[in-house]
Fold this sequence. Notes:
- This protein is of the alpha+beta class and 115 residues long.
- The protein has one domain.
- It is 30% helix and 23% strand.
- α2 crosses α3.
- The chain is globular, with a radius of gyration of 17 Å.
Amino acid sequence: MRDQENSLSRSARIHRKPPNPTTAEQQERFIHLVRLGWDLRTLGVRTSLVLPVTGQPILEIHSTAGTLARITVIRRYCGWVFTWRPWWARLWRRGEWVLAEADNAADIVMAEVTA
């Protein structure tokens, strides 16, 4: 399985499962989503934090018009980002994500989700 250079062979890389997020990463996701939920609450938006038994936590945004948006937070090269698009549509184009550390993240999320 390992070649002479002590690195994983191609067949081992293909069958390798992605690493499970650490407890610290899970807690950091939770903290970012709680902070966003609180900021959205100050804007008069109803939110719900969903903590599934398996999978990542999700922040659901309920608008007065009945719109439901699901916000996730993921780690990227630039840091933690909020995204509100489905996993298959997470192309890194403007309007599909915002840095979690941005001071105006709640305003940006609301503008994009309700548009």
